[in-house]
Specification:
The complex is a heterodimer of chains A (334) and B (337). Chain A has 14 helices and 9 strands. Chain A has 334 residues and is α/β, with parallel strands linked by helices. Chain B has 337 residues and is α/β, with parallel strands linked by helices. Chain B contains 15 helices and 14 strands. In chain B, α13 links the parallel β13 and β14. Classes of the chains: A alpha/beta (334), B alpha/beta (337).
């Protein structure tokens, strides 16, 4: 996408959202095992970046990387089958949602916080060595900036002048820890400390993300050395589906059952945790929803909006049924 | 056939591979000086020096391998591999599996190992058993120049991650850099057959997972890798004078293990002594024993390994590492002689 197209961006985001809504339902039904980390709330950042990638560009993503796979054009049925642990899944059921890989699209995920930094740096090293004029993107959360390997890869990308776009999706919460208690200084200052040019952007606003990304990527393609985007966002489901802090926040009875026996120790430490439970509700509020944010801008063209919503909903429904049909047909492992 | 040192053989095989395939690159700390010949010949883009930043550059090497290069990442000493374990344990070793075997990681990690020069327990470890514990890695430990070159070539062309060990008593420049430092006042027990030897005119890959018969025998099988192979041969020669015929096997690779070669030898000798410079507990020696028991082979068993943190004092160090006397004594004990 060379010119910004808000309708196309909206559709990309909606497709990812409805896909992950379907994933949520399937997870609740018990068809998906283990943890489930959604990219819900990050769609504007992902769409703003992925819409500007070319064939041959690479991405390293996190445990929360489903939107990147969806928006880059990976077959959604193969993703659902992977989440079911099916032999016909993207990774033959051996990876699951945290370890998704598409060699064809040059996207690699990792469940280790900070690992996308060195991976994207290595991708960029190979792309630059082969003189392909392609770029590599590292997506990560704000918690990852305290990992040594992330800082080491920022340093390497800088001294080697590699085409890496570091994209920090900052929702202010790393699992149950908050930035003010965990991260010294500011994140953008860290990038600048490594000699990397950085941008701050409201990650709820897909147009704003698209615009800073457009600047950053045009510099990258002119061999500028790495660029850094710090984008704020909201995780509506908190860290993962079934997040314990969020469940406590939303269920007064559960909250009381958790807190009551601890009251005898009442003190600063307990207060701190109770405060976190209260605060987590605020970070998941809808005002940070990128879909709602963009939809408001498009509300004047009601019919067009409705048509897109219907089309996407139909597509997701059909592909979900298709995946379920294959799943119910049984699994044959190699 | 020409004669080369252990280090020359590795460099010669690297030169051949780098000439054959421009996707072969080297990256690591100090490689512009440690590999100065290759640096001068192939240039700084192919022999790329890095900051002292192992988690960063080994992690990047995994990505580079996935994106079409065949990188050789040098982690100077295997002791320092601890700071880069995430890249190895959770990424290099797992990505081929997680991707449903659709995405390979053709990465070599070259690393120096081993003791015998008084540098103590944070710079002299072997750790190959610790690494071989991880599914998805191939572990190569050559003992002589011909193997060093041939195994390097096959490591480079292997599509899965390989950790290639280079023992410091065999590679003369390591010993010079780390132990001698230009002095004529120090000397170390360097196995001559390992440090220098005949090599082929053109390198051919040696298949990974094929052991080498170093000496035939009928009373006991001595199995080792690296410097331990030479200590075992020396012990076998002493044992021969005592009327004991010891077979000596050089595993060359720890993963994959040559189970057929091991079975064949131990079925014949019905006695096994594993000589392992790596730690005794939960390691190579126990693994070989288990593998043979699972194959219903009966045999007498002993092991001579490093059992504790390697001490600095050279006399204590000599006792801690598998030396010839320990091998001879243990063999006699195993055979009730």
């Amino acid at each position: 996408m060379n010119e910004i197209d808000i309708w196309k961006l909206y559709k990309m985001m909606l497709r990812s959202r409805l896909f992950e809504n379907a994933v949520t339902k399937l997870w609740k039904e018990g068809l998906i095992t283990g943890e489930m980390h959604l990219g819900i709330g990050e769609e504007a950042i992902v769409a703003g970046v992925v819409s500007q990638l070319e064939d041959g560009d690479a991405m390293a993503v996190t445990h929360r990387g489903t939107p990147q796979f969806i928006m880059r054009g990976v077959d959604p049925v193969s993703l659902l089958l992977e989440f079911f642990g099916h032999s016909e899944g993207l990774c033959k059921g051996q990876g699951g949602h945290m370890h998704l890989f598409s060699k064809e699209h040059l996207i690699a995920a990792s469940g280790i916080v900070g690992a996308s930094g060195p991976a994207a740096t290595g991708f960029a090293l190979a792309l630059s060595y082969k003189k392909l004029n392609k770029i590599a993107v590292a997506f990560f959360g704000e918690g990852a900036v305290n990992q040594g390997m992330m800082m080491e890869s920022m340093n390497l990308a800088s001294v080697w002048n590699l085409p890496v776009l570091f994209v920090c999706c900052d929702n202010d919460w790393a699992v149950t820890t908050t930035t003010n208690n965990c991260t010294g200084g500011t994140i953008l200052d860290r990038a600048k400390g490594f000699g990397i040019e950085g941008y701050s952007v409201n990650g709820t606003d897909v147009e704003a993300v698209w615009n800073v990304t457009n600047q950053a990527i045009s510099k990258l393609r002119k061999n500028s050395g790495p660029q850094f985007i710090h984008a704020t966002c909201t995780h509506m489901e908190a860290h993962l589906l079934g997040d314990l802090l969020l469940r406590n926040n939303q269920d007064p009875v559960m909250m009381a059952e958790t807190a009551e026996p601890l009251k005898q120790y009442a003190g600063e430490s307990l207060d701190e945790v109770l405060l976190l439970v209260r605060k987590i509700g605020a970070q998941t509020k809808k005002k940070g929803d990128p879909i709602v944010f963009t939809k408001k801008k498009l509300k004047d063209e009601e019919d067009r909006l409705k048509q897109i919503e219907e089309d996407v909903a139909k597509e997701i429904e059909e592909l979900t049924s298709k995946a379920l049909e294959i799943y119910k047909g049984g699994i044959k492992y190699d | 056939m020409t004669k080369m040192t252990f280090a020359q053989a590795i460099e010669s095989a690297l030169t051949q591979a780098m000439e054959e395939d421009e996707n072969v690159i080297i990256l690591g700390e100090d490689v512009h000086t440690l590999r100065i010949n290759l640096f001068a010949r192939f240039g700084k883009e192919r022999v790329k020096y890095t900051p002292i930043s192992e988690s960063g550059f080994v992690g990047a090497a995994v990505g580079a391998a996935m994106a079409g290069l065949r990188p050789i990442a040098e982690v100077m000493l295997v002791d320092f591999i601890a700071v880069t374990m995430d890249a190895i344990l959770n990424h290099a070793a797992k990505i081929p599996f997680f991707s449903g075997n659709k995405w390979k990681v053709p990465l070599v990690i070259r690393t120096a190992c081993g003791g015998g020069y008084g540098d103590a327990g944070q710079h002299e470890q072997s750790l190959w058993g610790w690494l071989a514990h991880i599914p998805g890695l191939k572990i190569v430990v050559p003992s002589n120049p011909a193997d060093a070159g041939g195994l390097m070539l096959s490591s480079i062309y292997e599509d899965n991650p390989v950790i290639y060990f280079e023992h410091k008593l065999l590679a003369d420049y390591w010993l010079e850099n780390m132990a001698i430092g230009g002095r004529t006042t120090v000397s170390f027990d360097v196995p001559e057959q390992g440090a220098e030897g005949e090599v082929p005119d053109k390198w051919e890959p040696i298949p990974l997972g094929k052991l080498n018969h170093m000496k035939d025998g009928s009373d006991i099988t001595l199995v080792s890798v690296g410097v331990g192979v030479h200590r075992s041969i020396e012990a076998a020669n002493i044992l021969e004078e005592k009327g004991i015929s010891a077979e000596v096997l050089d595993l060359r690779c720890i993963a994959p293990l040559d189970s057929e070669g091991l079975k064949k030898s131990v079925e014949k000798t019905e006695a096994l002594l594993v000589v392992d410079e790596d730690y005794k507990n939960f390691g190579l020696s126990g693994e070989i024993c288990a593998l043979l028991l699972e194959n219903e082979i009966s045999f007498k068993f002993g092991r001579v390994c490093t059992e504790n943190t390697i001490p600095y004092a050279i006399k204590l160090e000599n006792q801690a590492l598998p030396n010839t006397k320990r091998i001879v004594d243990k063999t006699l004990e195993v055979l009730n002689k």
